[in-house]
Amino acid sequence: MPDPRLAAHALVRRFAPGIGVAGIDLAVEAGEIHALVGLNGAGKTTLMRLLLGMLRPTAGRALVHGRDVATAGSTVWARVGHLVDHPLVYPELDGHTNLRVSARLRGLRGAAVRTAADRVAEELRLTSCLRTTAGTLSQGNRQRLGIAAALLHDPTAIVLDEPTNSLDPAGVILLRESLLRRAAAGAGILVSSHHLDEVARIADRVTVVNHGRVVGALAPDTSEIERAFFAMVHADDERLSR
Q1: pLDDT, tens digit, 9 for 90 and up, residues 49-68
Q2: 1-79+158-242 is classed in which CATH architecture?
Q3: Which residue intervals of the chain bear CATH 3.40.50.300?
Q4: H or E, element range at 225
């Protein structure tokens, strides 16, 4: 069986004075949209940073395309796309230049740079923003530009932390359709969100994280999924307080 696109094995990251991630096991398979949900401070962003090699684990292993993130080379990372915390945009550059810079950073060269930039701009309806300086764009359009930069090279492993932040309903739908197409083409996608109803529309699996630990899973078609989520988190809090 092929390696998962992304995987965590007994992953731990300690911070003073506490633990950000405490022994998480997780796998994101090819063709899967895997949603990560939890309250603020649950460890979602820390886990994503560990999977992307932005943080070093205290213990355990993080793998991308079957390779340890500590030793994965440029050819492995060229197949990864991510947006964590803030969109990677240069405020002094216009939208099209931002996309071309992102394409080059991700290993594209020659005519492929412009082709990729134009294609993703059309896909996410950014063409009207391409000649506008990124620093003057609305927050929603900057977010959309950051998503485009993460996806333009057709990565096979995708990590998106709260990607619908600041997006209007049209932007949310465009993102939803884009991720579904990419999963159907074989990408493994890990996405975090506070909007459980939205991730339930696209996720194949929903993993619940609380206090740096995986505390359960929810079926995407769970009735009243938000109520089920809060019940799971509350039950875990109760266990910890005993």
Answers
A1: 999 999 999 999 999 999 99
A2: 3-Layer(aba) Sandwich (3.40)
A3: 1-79+158-242
A4: helix 225-241
